[in-house]
Amino acid sequence: MTEQHISWAEPYKIKMVEPLFMTTREQRVKAMEEAGYNTFLLKSEEVYIDLLTDSGTSAMSDRQWAGMMLGDEAYAGSRNFYNLEAAIQKYYGYKHVIPTHQGRGAENLISRILIKPGDIVPGNMYFTTTKLHQEMAGGTFVDIIVDEAHDANSMFPFKGNVDLKKLEAVIKEHGAKKIPYVSIATTVNMAGGQPMSLANLKAVRELTAKYGIRIIHDMTRVAENAYMIKLLEEGQSERSTADIVKELCSLTDGATMSAKKDALVNIGGFLALNEWDVFEEARNQVVIFEGLHTYGGLAGRDMEAMAIGISESVDEDHIRARVGQVFYLGKKLMDAGIPMVKPIGTHGVFLDAKAFLPHVPQLAFPAQTLAAELYLDAGVRTMERGIVSAGRDKETGDHCYPDLELVRLTVPRRVYTQAHMDVIAESVERVYKRRNEIKGLRMTYEPKYLRFFQAKFEKL
Ligand code: P70
Fold first, then answer.
1. Does the beta carbon of 384 sit less than 6 angstroms from any atom of ligand 1?
2. Which of 226, 235, 410, 455 is in the most buried spot, having the most CB atoms within 10 Å?
3. H or E element that contains 301
4. How far is the CA of 184 from the centre of ligand 1 (A)?
5. 205/195 Cα distance (integer angstroms)
6. Quick check: 3 pLDDT over 80?
């Protein structure tokens, strides 16, 4: 690998196609106004290339579709549940499994079970839904990620790492009893899709073991993290991605998974646990929120597709092509001088909206503005990951002001081609050339929870 370029030609051919929607600028202007300058509120049919998210947007393989036909839709004890359980045990090594409708279903369960009011949950940068569930259970999230993660220009290769000094300081300040677990994500979404190193997770394990504190692993993009370890970490290049995935999991006590990313399904997730007592409580509670513990809100066919997707996610050719395509787009933009988070992330390219639109103050929502402008230019849909996503401070009610004000160009797995990547890069370059003409936004409607999903704006 040189400068984040790897040879990545797709290890598959295309058997079925889905037409895309082409729009005129006039149509896009109207659509954006109606959506209140929020890309979440656009209709899919108004979008040409959809980079809103890599969540649930992947193309399933012929094997996964074949698996869908083997759905055992029994209410209880579906054979697809046992296939899923076996795949999780084989590839991730966790002992007990509870399917959930998606990642946040698992986050809800684990937060309610382990967090008591007044507890502290340290983690390597917040994720929106994860943090909200921790807060709703009465906990307070504390960021313990390395400082480099908050700096878009730092070339540190493992920006997902935990700062061990910060973690130990939190433990000393609050005491281990107040910390039900440390929340560790493999590839940190909000930092720009940045991996953590195996050595760092080992060190976190050692430190938490000393104090008797659990690690709960947000393993949503663990295969991408493992692949980066293989590429960049000393002594890891000869290992398989699958092997590294399993070792990462083995350093933690349980996991929440949104299988809509790495695991290549359109819906699904799970909670995986090694401790019997915690599992038993989760099995009790899942029936309240998701469904019986052998389906957790999913159809049998969904669990079968997930079981197969898990095995495909750690395939060496697949993961190289997946990350390689993201690097291809990222490198094109970097070569054009577009301000972005470096190094390039594994699931998308994150534009640095503060540097892209330096004349737009954070309170005029530069990332929200940029996402709207990108859509207007060519119909490419992206997502704000800045002050709107960060929400309001639980205590003061003021906005949180994150250092990173980003627009995420998230690449779905196995969906778009190299020519699409070229169209996207050209559009970003066009918008960059006329950046000085772009003005910010004012928020006109603000929902109470996870406001970025439904907030509305108007042009200043
Ligand atoms: C995204 C999606 C979901 C996600 C995640 C990590 C690291 C948990 C979850 C929750 C979807 C999304 C969610 C909230 C705001 C914007 C977008 N991330 N942990 O696009 O999983 O969605 O299945 O409940 O990335 O990044 P789920």
1. no
2. 226
3. helix 300-313
4. 15
5. 17
6. no
pLDDT given for residue 6 in this prediction = 83
C-beta 269 within 6 A of ligand 1: yes
As for how many domains the chain has, the answer is: 2
pLDDT category, 1, cuts 50, 70, 90? low
Cα–Cα distance for residue pair 456/37, rounded to 1 Å: 6
Residue 447: give the domain boundaries: 3-54+316-459
| 183 CB near ligand 1 (under 6 Å) | no
Residue 134's alpha-carbon distances to 114, 121, 123, 296, in angstroms, are 9, 8, 11, 20
**Could you tell me the two tokens for 226?**
């493992």
Using CA atoms, how far apart are residues 104 and 76, in angstroms rounded to an integer? 23
Q: What is the number of helices (H) and of strands (E) in the chain?
A: 16, 14
Say how many CA atoms lie within 13 Å of 381 toward its Cβ: 26
Distance 312 CA to ligand 1 centre (A): 21
Say if CB 381 and CB 39 are below 8 A apart.
Answer: yes
Tell me: the pLDDT tens digits for 261-286? 999 999 999 999 999 999 999 999 99
User: Are 116 and 172 within one domain?
Assistant: yes
Asked if residue 194 and residue 334 are part of one domain, the reply reads: no
How many Cβ atoms from other residues are within 10 Å of residue 69's Cβ? 8
Q: List 255's β-bridge partners, or say none.
A: 217, 272
Boundary (domain end) residue, out of 257, 282, 313:
313
* Residue 234 DSSP code: T
| Dihedral sign for Cα atoms in the order 174, 175, 179, 181 | positive
| Exposure of 237 in the CB half-sphere (CA atoms within 13 A) | 4
One DSSP character per residue, 5-52 reads B-----SS------PPPP--HHHHHHHHHHTTT-GGGS-GGG-SEE-S
In terms of residues, how long is the chain? 460
Structural contact between residues 388 and 456, judged by C-beta atoms closer than 8 angstroms: no
Quote the pTM value: 0.96
**What residue has token string 């003061």?**
396
Ligand 1 centre from 382 Cα, in Å? 14
pLDDT in tens, 123-157: 999 999 999 999 999 999 999 999 999 999 999 99
pLDDT tens for 6-38 read 889 999 999 999 999 999 999 999 999 999 999
Q: What pLDDT is recorded for position 5?
A: 76
How is residue 287 written in tokens?
């029936």
